[in-house]
Amino acid sequence: MLSVELRTRIGALDLDVALDVPAGRCLALAGPSGAGKTTVLRAIAGLLRPDAGRIDCGGATWLDTAGGVALAPELRGCGYLFQDYALFGHLSAWRNVAYGLHELPRRERRPRALELLASFGIGERLAGKRPAQLSGGERQRVALARALGPRPRLLLLDEPLSALDARTRAGAGRELARLLRALEVPAVLVTHDFGEAALLGDEVAVLDGGRIVQRGTAARLAAAPASGFVADFTGAAVLTGRVNERHGDSGLTVIALDGGGVVSATDAGEGDVAVSVHPWEVTIEPAASAAGGSAHNRLEAEVVSVTEIGNRVRVGLALPQPFTAEVTRASVERLGLAPGARVVAVWKAAATRVTPR
């Protein structure tokens, strides 16, 4: 079990974080740049001394500022997977892994390095190659083998997929997720990408301005965001407004949007709020279409962008607030969607989340 309490100030960032991670579980610390994610990781590893705090892992105290305890990084037993993998370019894959096995007798290091690499799908042929001769996914697995070689008490991962190109990232992400689930030690990774956090983490802790604003499974955060910030971070389309009234007969909350327009939601709310809906819950209809079905929200919009993402198309809209829908290519062709087109964005009140701003 890893238990962390940290309080420190770095520049304008006032960090105050508490978290725990059981053995065999991975916590994804996710949030925008400057939120404090890497600061937390560095403090856990002992590369940064916080103003106040305590870190315990596996029954040992690594840091206790009140008691004057501050274990050196090399004594904490952390496996650290750096953002760029930090492999030695002049060494072969197996020698990179063997570098961290200095506690073993020299004659045992190569067999152990090859064994570790084989467990990550790197055979002896690739083990003899230097990092520049390996693919991005292969370099990632070498770095992970090196991090796990000394049998660490904890694994730390800093943006583990950011060094990969888009084509490699998906496959490497799935492989890393499988490997993380097989570990018997706590793992903490940092990422600015919610999709990556959802793929790799058993739980996601969203960090903003040095504070954890919500923690839970990725599905829980997406379904019930605690704030407009979390909703936006999980990929929902977010609008701002103010609650006008709540109809007792229909049970709907009516929100007047900033800039014009009104939407309804089944969630309760009061005062200034953020309204969010997942882009795939939004359908697009021609501007002249008549209301129909069970959807309660219909807002006239102008198409500002049409972007293909995989087998879906992300449509940027102005309501006049920026908004997003996700539709099929067939819908784009059928509706003739292009920048400047006038349409109606439609979604159900039950799909609308209302959170404090």
Describe the structure.
With 357 residues, this protein is α+β, with helices and mostly antiparallel strands. The protein folds into 2 domains: 2-223, 3-Layer(aba) Sandwich (Rossmann fold); 228-356, RNA polymerase II/Efflux pump adaptor protein, barrel-sandwich hybrid domain (OB fold (Dihydrolipoamide Acetyltransferase, E2P)). Helix content is 26%, strand content 36%. It is built from 11 helices and 21 strands. The protein has helices at residues 37-45, 73-76, 93-99, 106-119, 124-127, 136-148, 166-181, 194-200, 218-223, 228-233, 329-335, and strands at residues 2-10, 13-21, 26-30, 52-57, 60-64, 69-70, 78-81, 154-158, 187-191, 203-208, 211-216, 237-246, 253-257, 262-265, 272-277, 283-286, 297-309, 312-318, 322-327, 342-347, 353-356. The chain has a 6-stranded mixed β-sheet with strand order 7-8-9-3-10-11, sandwiched between helices. A 5-stranded antiparallel β-sheet has the order 2-1-4-5-6, with helices on one face. Strands 14-13-12-15-21 form a 5-stranded antiparallel β-sheet. A hairpin with a 3-residue loop joins strand 18 and strand 19. The two termini are 35 Å apart. Keywords: ATP-binding, Molybdenum, Nucleotide-binding, Transport. InterPro entries: AAA+_ATPase, ABC_SmlMolc_Importer, ABC_transporter-like_ATP-bd, ABC_transporter-like_CS, Mo/tungstate-bd_C_term_dom, Mop_domain, P-loop_NTPase, Transp-assoc_OB_typ1. Residues 1-234 form the ABC transporter domain.
